[in-house]
Description:
CATH class of the largest domain: Alpha Beta
Bound molecules: flavin-adenine dinucleotide
Structural class: alpha+beta
Radius of gyration: 26 Å
Amino acid sequence: MSDTASAQLDCDVLIIGAGPTGLALACELLRHGLSCRILDAVENPTTFSKAQILHTRTLEVLEQMGLVEDFLKKGRALHLLSMYTPDLRRIFHFTVGEFDSAYPYMLSLPQHDTEQILIDHLAKHGVIVERPFHVERLQQEDGSVLVFGTRGPQQTPAQVRAAWAVGCDGANSVVRHELNIPWQGSTYRQRVLQADVKLEWPLYHAEDEVFGFVSEHGSLGVFPLPAEGRYRLVALDAGLSPTPENFQYLLNTRGPKEARITDAAWLHEYTIHCRLATAFRQGRVFLAGDAAHTLSPSTAQGMNLGIQDAFNLAWKLALVHKHIGRDILLDSYEAERSPVAAELMKTSDLATRGLNDLFTLHGSLAQSMRNSLLQLVSEFGLVRRSISRNLSMLDLGYPNSPIVDQHHASRLTRARGASAEALSAGPKGTGANIGLRQWLDFGHGPSPGQRAFDGRALDVTSNQKRSLYSLLHSGQHLLLLFAGTVETEDGYRRLVAIGKHLRERHPSAISVYLVEATLHSETPADPSWDGPTLLDEDGWLHQTYGARAECLYLIRPDGHVAFRSQPADPIKLDEFLARVFI
Ligand SMILES: Cc1cc2nc3c(=O)[nH]c(=O)nc-3n(C[C@H](O)[C@H](O)[C@H](O)COP(=O)(O)OP(=O)(O)OC[C@H]3O[C@@H](n4cnc5c(N)ncnc54)[C@H](O)[C@@H]3O)c2cc1C
């Protein structure tokens, strides 16, 4: 910690704001071995339900954080999306669920429960949110960040010094203002009316169904909450104030007859913003969550995006702070997360404007055409799949990131195997004569920056089946050395040499696994490989990773592909690692 040693630090990372983003970041930093403090201006955590939906990718992230079981216990899985007319005619219906994930659904859980799970987890690890602590100003100096504010009900002046600071302080971020980072975008003219209510009504619906109503008066969204009989009602541009009577009026005019609100909590009206900070980093200070981007809630992805920001940033901060990783890792945070936020903003914007236009049609002919169109669209598998895929957030990746890459020997050089340097450095004779089919297969494996596929294999040492994602729980990078289904002895030896070299060179940052296909388990094991081996008994991993021929994949701690190479090329791998690791 040479550059920060001159000033006395109160912690490694100071987090400003204890919403879902700040809390998730604190949990992740602790998992990666950094100390942190977390401040919030408000005396108590939110009691509002706010963000209610956790999408598939966020559930995978929570699994990596070791918390998903707590979320699944409290939340309600939602699989169905439907749209009805007030006379209960179903005009739109489909099932969400992506089966390349262990969580093929959306999880309904009020934001205060999400925050409470994270707060409880932090408390178990000795971190308590410091509140009320209102941050007012910050300055960067001498390899550290000094944050000034007021603490407690008496608003006593206070300051905290940390090596790094992250502004997770929401859309009106003081940190963003302090950094003078422009906040670009717009505010919608529509207003959203929202309430959490208990309902008695005539509609029989599945426990796991999200639904909406469209009528000549407009639309009404209905989202089941985990508690029995409770729902969130959402109406766009209703022109009403948020009172129980007005929500009852909305149900009477837009929903089924005889629906009755028996209890209403958190009645709320708000304006939607769609804005993006022009930078996510300035020196030792970062922005994450709503402080960096706010989206329309139409796709219910805002909080998910914030939690995923935290997941992206924490491991990078940890590696750089421990002087294992280079600064390029920190620059990659904005390079990766800003395009993702911009892409989601586009879809949520489209959804907001499109749904508004669709649901405010006047005239019975226009409405009847709209209803027929919705019915038709929901019957197209392609449309259903595209909506479900986008909602899941599974395809969000970082193909243009400065810290992802690949070496895929060109079609011309493939027959010669690894690079010339590798040949001279590695064991003699690669034998990696890659056929066209093997070469093409590799192209279909997860590409650099993409989310790595999960799958199960037998851990030979423990004789237990394990998922690939469980191997990431350690917080390290994961190097998978695929022997290939057309394994050659020379290729196998080269993998062993790479594995041994990596284990010696990066013992605390990378865990190395040799992955063998069942078919070739009789291949004589190199007696010098004493590292862990996965037996891919059903060949699933080899198939999904396009590993018909010997190759390697380096997976980052956040489950995205950092680097891959076919054939497994030690020189190219070393070159890549030198860009990222010290
Ligand atoms: C009505 C509503 C419904 C929504 N529905 C969904 C949904 O279904 N799905 C979804 O994904 N998203 C939804 N969102 C968006 C979601 O709530 C936000 O994206 C999410 O809360 C962002 O989390 P965050 O931690 O980044 O910021 P916030 O939750 O805004 O937290 C910021 C924290 O920083 C603190 N803070 C602010 N200034 C300071 C300061 N100067 N000093 C110290 N602390 C400070 C605040 O007190 C607050 O606790 C909804 C939002 C609203 C308002």
